[in-house]
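YM 10:42: N-acetylneuraminate synthase family protein sequence, as discussed on the call
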Amino acid sequence: MTVSIGSRVIGGGRPTYVIAEIGLNHNGDVEIAKRLIDVAANAGANAVKFQKRTPEIATPEHMRDVPRETPWGTMSYLDYRRRVEFGRDEYIEVGDYATMRGLDWFASPWDVPSVEFLEELNVVAHKVASASLTDIELLEALRATGKPIILSTGMSTPEQIDRAMQTLDTDRVILMHATSTYPMEPEEANLRVITTLRDRYPGVPIGYSGHERGLQISLAAVALGAVAVERHITLDRTMWGSDHAASLEPGGLEHLVRDIRIIETAMGDGVKRVFPGEQAPMAKLRRVGV
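YM 10:58: structure's back
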């Protein structure tokens, strides 16, 4: 089965859909967001993804008044969330810029008003963050949009994933294997879950959302059949913010896309044959012809 997002078809042997997650790594700055969009476009990614919250709803009660040290001084966690959140004008600006650079753009809504907000901007798809997989009200709102949905499965049990899939009840889902550790160590990658999910949900395209350092695990996911790969991106891993350390810098994203495309070419079609490049070595080295 395939799922279409914008003009691109995902699954069914098509090229891996590479999502560069900007998330909140723009730190509330539109110009930084545009620079990150440039990074994604220049690397050959297919999409950029943001996060959209209504801070008063999405911020847990016990976290709201916790002091947070920020580049703008000490403030409550709730005020920090307000400070880095883009509004309508900012999203129109960065969304138009992403479209101009040839990228799909969408976001992870963390609450129902954020779904409505993104729908007004006519995003091409929605992403469900791993933390939101158990939010049935949110999933029902996303189902009602009729848009393609990318569902991450970090911090979730098989039963919780089953319930989320039943709630979404659509054939326009891409299911993403993920482990929600930031940054993730290799022993927690558990890449064989890609095969497990493919077996558990026949016909559903399975991708990979990674939070590891480096490229090897994401590339292995592609070799195992992941139809989409999502990685956080940053201008500099030493920037202030919670996700930068588990993000790829511009050169890393370029190498990731390059190597994914090489792996896709190298996977071939599974039919054993003698390639033209083998003819000369065969003539030189093989003593018995049959």
